[in-house]
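Chapter summary example.
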Amino acid sequence: MNFIFSVAFMANAFSMTGLLILLSLAGNSAFAADIGIVQAATLALFYAFSGNARNLILNHKSGVTAQSVLNNRFILILPLAVAAYWLSAIMASVPSSIAMVLILRRAVEWFDEVYLSEMERLDIKKSAFQYTILQAFLLGISLLWLILKLPYPLFGLLLWSLLPLLLSVRFYFQNILTLSMLFTHGISKKMLPHIGSSMIIGVTVYVFRLLVILVTGKSTAGDLFTAFAIGGVLGSVFANAIGPSLALHQKRSLNYQMPAIIKLMLMVFLSAGILLTTLSILKLDILNLTGKTFLFWQATGLSMVAGTIMVFAQMMRHRILQHHLEQDLFGPDVIMNILIIAAVPFGYYLFGLQMMTALYLLSAILAYLFYASYEFGEGFKSGLSPVNLRKLKIVIVAMLFVPLFFQINGGLFNDKAMLYDSEGGLSLLPIPISVLGCFLGVLLLGNYQQAKLSFTFIFTTFILMTFATIISTGEFVGLKESKFIFLIQFVMPMFGLVLGQFFYQQGDGNHNLVLEKTLLFVLIMFVPLQIICTWLQGLYYLSPYLYLMSIYQHFQYVPIVFVSAYLLVFAGLWSLPKYRIYLATLMLLMSIYVVASLSIMAMLLFYAGMFGFIWYQYKKDRSWLLPIAVFVSLFISIFYFSSLFEPNLKQKNSYFTDLQSQSIESEKATSVFPVNFLQKLPSWKYHFAGIEDNVRSLVFGHAERPDRNIYPSAYNYYLDFGYNFGLLAMIPLFSLIFYTLKQIRQFATTNAYSDKGNVFLLFSLSGVVLYLLFVDNSLKVSLRQPYSGIFTFFLWGLLISKLSYFNKKKAPHVI
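The structure predicted for these 815 residues follows.
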């Protein structure tokens, strides 16, 4: 294999990185940080709209030509350059002259990528050789100019930026279209998923570096960026230079072995990384001779280890893009890049500065896992037997639904407080196991092409929220960090939507009942257990304390999830006689549970659903069994409600006595009493007034959240979203709601004369999802809570997949 094209791409893509590294090693960390910010801003924009161009040009099956890519870039160059200047010079305070020169350099690199890709496709090695020599000469001159502190340093940088056009300008004149033709052709639709894929990576680089600077400080961040660049050079070189050429070589030669020279480099790099990490952890004096901190060398060593992992991850990426027809990596890129952004603030506040040194390693591991999941086709579940697939789904549903919470510093959450307050400490915040279950499920079940709608929703929401955050915070640098953390809190539960679309797969048939059966098992375990533990503690209202563990948010959010699950279980399993005794018994227990939870939302949903089932079942077989059971349950609920007026079993006081003594902070819980509704009105008025305060707040939201001592919550997910991120960022959410309603209406029309049982099952799921979206989230912020949010989005994604399938088939089989 000839590496000349790889070297040419390296010379084009890594000159700015080389400048950053050498300036930092020369002791100018602040200037290196400025270069890092401009590089991140240009990557967030120029790379964002690259759309995997090189791989697509090299893949003759893609239908994408060098001229079409060039046309796209001529259309986009001016707005992207202006946006890059705004992000770096205005928002990040990089000196204007430096920002303009570096943006110009990045623009030239962006166009020359197309030139070199076409030369590689045509196998014109001479052009690649000439380009490499010129780039090396120009970088050397500019570095000497800066290090020797010669006069007019910007002129030296300007020469380095523009002179590469000497070799490529002729190619551009031969391929450029007229201005009218450029805008007539527009941006190629075939590139849109690839642009989305590269855009999420580019935006992540910018947000990632900005967050690192915010949490660690500019000087430390400059050292970390340099360490990531040094340690990650092999992975970056392979991703941007060697990888596409190697994938092309493998495709042409049908030889899929890694070249010996690359294997040797990987072994050396891995060994050096392990050695450097060990030396830095042991804090040996030899590293002090370099003038750099142990933190710097630890970050460098871990990044070198990560580089070897990243090489294999990128090799999978390039194979997918070049060897397959119309394949894109939009889904994996969205999920892993949002995860790495979330790791910056949460990792720092949970584990300290040491965690920052492992960020590139975490990025490499995530890339490898999700690209492998994609390459194996429909995730790691490929090849599983139906029995094992069913077991896998059982585990995933159980992890999503079991109300098991952990604390980073405390292990299994176990606290007796009725309303636990972590006092803002992330290490004390109870985290549901459903977070792990959600991302594990995506990794193991991933049919990424099936969930493009979900990934598009998450991608557009994340991009618009990021844009709103940058606009609303403006020059208030200190506010950006907390705003990005809040952004992550909104976005993370949305991946439940992806898992929901993955979970329902065509041809599963009755395997979909695995959801209902697993939910039934968990309900049978936890509902009676919590009621018994409540009584043992001498209480009538629900206790979170189960002796070995506690349930977090047991008043506000868990009851509505349990009731939703029970209604889905009832709709799916009541028609099977062997489950009726379990469902009837659980119904009686749920009638106690919903009252003890003090949640009017849970009570309304439970009895609205049960009376709906009465109506359906009576029309179907005229049976009185279900109506009698429901009315008995209602009587039990009324009787149990009256017990709230009576003294508790041991404490000799009632719910109302506790309420008056403020043992229960009912303003934070979803109480059954009208006063709770009235307590929410001031918060609703404040948030609504804040949204319509001015055009900027209406479109982009506010820079900071309201004072939580005065307004602890918006008590409405949509007001909360709009107040903090503006209506622009809510467009994808409203669009998805409209799409769902449209699909439900289409299903009701086209399947009106289909099997009534199947129609009823899907309408039951629709009713639960719509109740959660329009009722529950109008009175709470359930969709941004990890436990309730992931579960709600999961049901929503499941509903969308089922509606999409049945609307296409118009002849549903048993679900």
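To summarize the output: Strands lie at 405-407, 411-412, 431-432.
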